[in-house]
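FAQ
Q: What does a multi-component entry look like?
A: The components come first, one per line:
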Amino acid sequence: MSKLWEKGTARLDALIEGFEIGDDATYDNRLVEPDVLGSLAHAEMLAAIGVLAPEELDQLREGLREILRLHAEGEFAMEPGDEDVHTKVENFLVTRLGDVGKKIHTARSRNDQVLVDLRLYSKRKLLETEVALLECAAALVRFACKHEWAPMPGYTHMQRAMLSSVGTWAGAYAEMLLDDWSLLEAAYELNDWSPLGSAASYGVPLPIDRQLVADRLGFAGVQNNVLYAQNSRGKVEGMIVQALAQVMLSLSKLAQDVMLFTTSEYGFFHVSDTLVTGSSIMPQKKNISMMELVRAKAHIVLGYQQQILGVLAGLPSGYNKDYQETKRPFMDSVDTVLAALAVTELTVGSLEPDEERLLAACTPELYATDRAYELVQQGVPFRDAYRQVGVSLHELPPVDARESLRKRTHQGASGNLGLQAQEEAVTRRLAAARERLDGIEHHWRNLVSGEPQKGMGGNER
Amino acid sequence: MSKLWEKGTARLDALIEGFEIGDDATYDNRLVEPDVLGSLAHAEMLAAIGVLAPEELDQLREGLREILRLHAEGEFAMEPGDEDVHTKVENFLVTRLGDVGKKIHTARSRNDQVLVDLRLYSKRKLLETEVALLECAAALVRFACKHEWAPMPGYTHMQRAMLSSVGTWAGAYAEMLLDDWSLLEAAYELNDWSPLGSAASYGVPLPIDRQLVADRLGFAGVQNNVLYAQNSRGKVEGMIVQALAQVMLSLSKLAQDVMLFTTSEYGFFHVSDTLVTGSSIMPQKKNISMMELVRAKAHIVLGYQQQILGVLAGLPSGYNKDYQETKRPFMDSVDTVLAALAVTELTVGSLEPDEERLLAACTPELYATDRAYELVQQGVPFRDAYRQVGVSLHELPPVDARESLRKRTHQGASGNLGLQAQEEAVTRRLAAARERLDGIEHHWRNLVSGEPQKGMGGNER
Amino acid sequence: MSKLWEKGTARLDALIEGFEIGDDATYDNRLVEPDVLGSLAHAEMLAAIGVLAPEELDQLREGLREILRLHAEGEFAMEPGDEDVHTKVENFLVTRLGDVGKKIHTARSRNDQVLVDLRLYSKRKLLETEVALLECAAALVRFACKHEWAPMPGYTHMQRAMLSSVGTWAGAYAEMLLDDWSLLEAAYELNDWSPLGSAASYGVPLPIDRQLVADRLGFAGVQNNVLYAQNSRGKVEGMIVQALAQVMLSLSKLAQDVMLFTTSEYGFFHVSDTLVTGSSIMPQKKNISMMELVRAKAHIVLGYQQQILGVLAGLPSGYNKDYQETKRPFMDSVDTVLAALAVTELTVGSLEPDEERLLAACTPELYATDRAYELVQQGVPFRDAYRQVGVSLHELPPVDARESLRKRTHQGASGNLGLQAQEEAVTRRLAAARERLDGIEHHWRNLVSGEPQKGMGGNER
Amino acid sequence: MSKLWEKGTARLDALIEGFEIGDDATYDNRLVEPDVLGSLAHAEMLAAIGVLAPEELDQLREGLREILRLHAEGEFAMEPGDEDVHTKVENFLVTRLGDVGKKIHTARSRNDQVLVDLRLYSKRKLLETEVALLECAAALVRFACKHEWAPMPGYTHMQRAMLSSVGTWAGAYAEMLLDDWSLLEAAYELNDWSPLGSAASYGVPLPIDRQLVADRLGFAGVQNNVLYAQNSRGKVEGMIVQALAQVMLSLSKLAQDVMLFTTSEYGFFHVSDTLVTGSSIMPQKKNISMMELVRAKAHIVLGYQQQILGVLAGLPSGYNKDYQETKRPFMDSVDTVLAALAVTELTVGSLEPDEERLLAACTPELYATDRAYELVQQGVPFRDAYRQVGVSLHELPPVDARESLRKRTHQGASGNLGLQAQEEAVTRRLAAARERLDGIEHHWRNLVSGEPQKGMGGNER
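Then the predicted structure of the entire assembly, as tokens:
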């Protein structure tokens, strides 16, 4: 397809052309809607400053809505040879509208278009990820509440250490995910600034209104310095993937625990038969392979994080084509984390503790420290009590596990996990995340329909 | 030295002993003060719940202050064979105070000690990094203001693209650092929760008061679930290093620009002779080697980030010795970024633009887009204007660069960079960061002196 | 599609099913031919030990050839829901041949099938990479020979350092690629062992003939221990990607040089207009963007290397589903390097030095060291000569650059680059790599046609 | 200390000076001996081409031997302010010998000195690593032979899969290490070329004899192109660390297995009490923490690999200061792997299988596939036999595990592991590696003593 920069002179070598595009176009399919939204806001602004006549704006709006309709029907997919989504959109408008189409690119560059497309894509995806993460946390809290008092060995160094509970185990993961949620929030805020108007990296000698564009797109504000806008390409994606990497690490730890606890040797948990896979050679196998994949995918996201940040290191300022290579690891990371959250939520929901085996695993040595503390309470200095118990482990008296769990009453211990507060925190945040996602979708629908509206604003920066 | 867990039975093999400790002890030297602070708060709490008598608390306080004094004089350094800082502190107290020393370890484990030590270390280091970063941003804003109107070619793809200015270039980096600052803030908040009381990972069957400890140490609050406290080892360090990696990427980009712009070929900037190094073989060389090191060190911090996060992936829950391996990459990353910020601030402060060469580099093709916009303003659709200019590049009329800079008046462009607002933002945040650092130091001094005080509190979580 | 391990009981949850397969199936399309080759050799062996009757072997051969035919016509592509290529092949044979099809999986597992498929895939791809790399090296040597005596500044620290030549510059890259070639060779040897017969990881209680299979497939021999065969999954791919990463690093260095040397500021080289791309906003731009992509793709391959090796770290022995995640980074790395080599070869072939600008850049300070050596030859100790020249740089006498190049006569210097020897080395290896690639293709064609033949053997291990 | 490049003009800023040196000097302590060896060979060459008089050579030799003597006594350590080892050595010679000392740097640069130092360091360290690796492999083969027939469950997906044996398990690791050994060998060959004479990257206008230097230092030959010599800085270290990373991955897998198999839940192996560590709070704990560290250190080496290769990506040709940053991750990787090999060898040597628990874990479902094969041998197609067994798992007949192990007679299976061949391979290679290490040490002693000798030669390149 024709390229925006062709001037009727030398043709690009075919090998180079294929190399330049690669599978980037495939990923651009996900940017059709953001590109249209950005174009709508940009066109409104061009009309507001007099570059477009009102009827030209109407034509462009109609053309852009047509693209959304075609896209919804799968009729606007990138094809081999399409250089990028921005070119495809502009070419469509020129073909459909003639000279009016040739005006849409006034005061912008593909450099700031791809920036704004990615920001819009990320706004939605981050909120979807927050929702999926909080749903997973909710499943963990439910599981923790249900089995709050089920005794379970606590491990350190993969060796049995002290008495713990299923509630403690699951509650720990819920709290971990809540910390990950706050990282997603921090990434959301840094993503929430409109880069449009930075053009090729150096602005334009036209009196454009960047605030209007930011408001129409639902951003918290304008990303100020035009060169910084370009220099932040990849950087914002990198921040987001750093947060996603933390989510994957949390899930990979949970996955490893689930794998251990479902072996024949541990036998603490069962997973529903509808979630396991078999072997082509061993008729008896039930493999928890989705958890293996979650474990492995943590490394995939870490590798993508490395790709994005590695590409950025030492790049001179201004747009560099290198940035194109950050798109795939970024989008694949988003997809990976969304899928891993859904699978983990499903897995947690299907876990069934085997209380008998759990209790049987709570062997006497788990209580060695408790015994030492009894001696402490009789006045023996802790280090002496520790040594005394250490050389008489075989004499530890029998203990009632459930009783013992209840005795750990300080904040965050098995007898005082604060699960209700966790549940409330998760529920509150989940409702807020859903509401925010609805709000932004609504804002964008208004932009498409041409409905006048205020900006969504944001925190003062 | 004697180990806390030895019970007079088998001796640890010497090869293994060396392997277990490695250079970890060296890094533990930085945790002496945090370990003492944690011990002071823990002892106060043990006294408050009746495990220690008031005079025992006094003795422990005196012993711990003695350690601080010795440490300040370089007399409390880790030696080969010292297993870790926690052991060294407890052994010192037992030797000095007898049975009272043996009581300090009641209701805690080295696992939660190292956690709290690292959180205290990180609180200070994050604030120091914020101060250094904001000082570097301040140098950039000063440089931008001074040379706001100096014309300079703007590059894309490492090729001359459009007119830009030295003010735009430097202002872009100031804004980038401000975004990095907000990542440091997000990491600070996640670090600001007290893990003490989680013990080996599973709490203790004693009625300890975790909130009191958190308040005395100046944390925003208690990290609730005891197992999550342990599972967050490495995770919080990883979050911090992720933020530090972003800082290094910003600096590496600046470094690459400075290297290019100081070559004979560009010649845009000069760096002070006191900052450059020479060659052992070529008498004429002046190398900007500190910028080369900054460029390289971005990859060092990325590698450390990978080390920390890689270690965490797929680790089962509860303490694992693997965590020890995260200490070095974490602390080295902190040191690296602090040094790189100081060196970059110094370098920026010494930069001298060569206005003559900058102007000479603003060759006519930089104005090709401006010319296209002139045609747009005469009613030619942008894409047609673009093609028209593209085939008549040799006919571009001469342009006054400074005049042209001033014409780019939209937000964030060379004629409207908002440098004063940047300066105010930097100044305000720098003052706040310094005040916060002073506040926490003051809080800790009170803890050492035994002065009663309130907690520092924090945001509701 | 039906799964090999389904036994008519619980159905796999749809979310999990999608997660398990992901885009793995897409990558399995590249394993259709290897899977058929492996199946052909396996079937021959089953016939040789009496598990299959001769006519059953004939039927299976015909069925497998049919798959190859369909695949060549694009009619055997993996479809959504196909679990993997092994399942698809077996299902096809069962549908087509009935009970005979059900026998093909005797004494093997999908675990050893995917192993052997990847080894066969890698054999071909490594040889193709060697050919592409040597062609690129050949282009560099030709370029070096053509411009052997063109003076050029030599840089250190990105600053002009000493006199060098275009021949030195290009010859350096040719030699670097020859070192990379030897890494590819080392990887080839480690890949060249047949894992078939290791089954699920633990062999089978049947008297299979693993040597026969290895010979028929053209491997150097059998990978002995069955568990090691499985434990080497990902490891061999990792070794290959480590070698590929080195190739990409070489190309990224060359790319960076080409980008610098084609800026307006350096202006040393021109690249053909058919290889450059334009800007959508700046009519004058000619971007060497394929070199930017090569620079960026080095980080992509480093990230893939990290993904593969990260997945392996700490995995317990025996097959783990995690291995599936190594397939994509592996195959994408292979594709990336093959494309980058072709693009680089094309770019090098199109480079035109601008001798005038090169000569103009050979400014007097490049000869400072030469001047010091003149003093050395007059008896001044080097360090004194160095200091003497260092303080009188403005007095350096004019020098004839070409003359000076010829005076550097020691091995590997500009006057004695040994380009002819390099050319011979490249030519010899290129011929050998092509011959080897032809040989293995011929061997496989014989396997498909059922032609009896000897094994290809290999070096004694 | 005085810098080689100071000319009595501007002094380097103290902050920059500290930043430039960092902890690089610490690592330079390991290069004192290599630097002296390189200087001896260089001085011999300078004498051979007439730059040094015979008596000057004698003086330099004496001075350099003095450095070795001081270094052996710990009296030649790098001190704060020493720029690097090369400067320290030259300064020592100048102070001791006056003008003769000032001549040693003729025709070389610190750039090629550090290159040759690292190659010499690597020659020795690679051979030491080969010896340590082969000793570890030997321990594994001994363990495998001793417990060849001990039954053990074989796992896939961390679930019990099929019958295996302790011999199979340990033998798999021995073979894996042998593959790693061949990677070390490949790295050794690429390291074995002398870069001396490349000087600052562009050779020298003096008739130096690079072959003589290579011979005296025991290299296989000369690294030809002077610019490639410099461009290979970091690349060779990267190749070595890539091989070391593979070793660590092997050890991390073994470590994870040992950790699993020594839990209470598995209980397959015991580790000697002299190798385990305790807990400061739980008196009963016996932690296999050295294996946890090995597992974690795999990620450390992967991160170092990333650091080295990341620094190289996109660096322009010629020396860049960035290379300095590769020294630490390189040397630390070498140390890490040497220590991990020694610890693993010790651990393997102390492992005691618990045959009773191993046998008890060989539960009937392990034989499901065997049963399917029995049906196959009765003529049932495998896929039918598989399904038949799959739905009647509870009816599997009892099996004699040892008997069954012996029945797996094909190459590489439990009944035919080829352990004797492995043992011979390990022994042969170990002897060869030790001999090679002795040979190179002997060669270097002769260089120090001034003994005339031939080069060690190498394979034709």
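Q: Is there any commentary attached?
A: Sometimes. For this entry: The beta strands of chain D are 151-156, 159-165, 193-194, 221-222, 269-270, 352-353.
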